[in-house]
Amino acid sequence: VNYFLKCVNCGTVYDPKEIMYTCPKCGPRLGTLEVVINEYPKHSSFDLKSKGIWAFSDLLPIDEDHYEVPLFIGNTPIYEKKALAKKLGLSDLWIKNDGRNPTGSYKDRATAMAITKAKALNFNTIYCASTGNAASSLAGLTAASGMKSIIFVPKTAPEAKITQLLVYGAIVMAVDGTYDEAFDLSTEIGNEFGWYSRNSAINPYLLEGKKTGAMEVVVQLDFKVPDFAIVSVGDGTVVSSIYKGFKDMKTIGLIDKIPKIIGVQAEGANAIVRTFESGHFDRPVDIDAHSIADSIAVGKPRDVLKACKWVKESGGYFVSVTDEEIGKAIIELARETGVFGEPAGAAAYAGLKKLAKDFQGKSAVIFVTGNGLKDIKSAMNFAGRVNYVKPDPKDVKSVLRQIGVIQEG
Ligand SMILES: Cc1ncc(COP(=O)(O)O)c(C=O)c1O
Ligand SMILES: [Zn+2]
Question: Which runs of E-coded beta strand occur in 234-382?
Fold first, then answer.
């Protein structure tokens, strides 16, 4: 596929053979690059079932004989929830469960692209900084591809995510600092040693892999487009990619509108909300970030400019939710739909709950971007408690009476 790179800030166009990461004029923060595909093929059938994300190969900036990670990525399930939609006053509600990817998060879509690019450029070592999911994804997909990964995570990342890294054989640097610090540290070291970067926003191809999530929704809904698409936001790449996926499908002529994209942040990590509301997208507001939703606990978002511009273009906006609302959303989403999301995954549902009164009669899709088993500690705090019993039916019955499951007598 024929494509070029374009700076999202100054609009300068670059040849992908000359520039790998960001615009030299605008620097890595504002000068993130958009991949612009010259001409899309005209087609309308996509074999999701056997190909996953590679069903969209000719809409991606890759060669025809590109490398594909030998793991099945994408074609994650989408569920229509009629009763829940009715309860919330919506005309329709769909839940896209991306926790079903091979390493349990949306990030596998991006990592697959990074590996395809690294193989084409003859790199064998890839590094990244991550709150945890990009890292576990990189560790898993490099293992499957016979490559090496070097990972920088804040040492506070959930145990399950760090365990994934070690199990897959990554070299792990648990940084005594925030994700934002781990990011800058990784870039410095990665540049010095010449490893390939899978850092959010810096690598323009990650977003292209991520856009397949929105494209899948279009295909799975048989080219029907929801009014709103809701997803949680850390660095801002995923939310931008969802806009791009819908936009590409519109460019090809398969749909005639783009949903309003709604980005959901944690209140203690709402840097993009603040920048968006300031109206000055090229002057990002950075903060100290804190949230139980570790995946979106980002204080210095790297794709802030793109996220603000593209969400605005879609007619959407950003909203923040409290940790309490996120915790409750994990439980409610699981009990209403059977989908167990990690805090950042359930945050999208928390955002929907918050905005439901404005969405009356409209349709929405929410992206659950990470699997609940990745962070059980946060879920446990909101999940209720177990009943401890002796191995004795009498004791069980007494407890069942106490909690009102069976009647006295
Ligand atoms: C589960 C989950 N949801 C949402 C996001 C947000 O993505 P982005 O940082 O691109 O905004 C992440 C990123 O780490 C994630 O892991
Ligand atoms: Zn530029």
Answer: 260-266, 317-321, 363-368
Residue 277 CA to ligand 2 centre (angstroms): 23
All residues at 6 or more sequence positions from 17 whose CB lies less than 8 Å from its CB, including other chains: none
Q: How far is the CA of 133 from the centre of ligand 1 (A)?
A: 8
Beta 148-154 vs 13-14: how paired, if at all?
unpaired
Alpha-carbon gap, residue 337 to 28, rounded angstroms: 40
Ligand in closest contact with the CA of 261: 1
Global pTM reads: 0.97
Q: Within 10 Å of residue 295's Cβ, how many Cβ atoms?
A: 31
Q: Kindly list the averaged pLDDT for each block of 10 residues, start to end, along the chain of length 409.
A: 96 97 97 95 88 97 97 98 98 98 98 98 98 97 98 95 97 96 97 97 98 98 98 98 98 96 98 98 98 96 98 98 98 98 98 97 98 96 96 97 89
Ligand 1 centre distance from Cα of residue 404 (Å): 40
Please provide residue 247's backbone torsions phi and psi, each rounded to the nearest 5 degrees: -65, -45
**Half-sphere exposure of residue 19: CA atoms within 13 angstroms, side-chain side:** 25
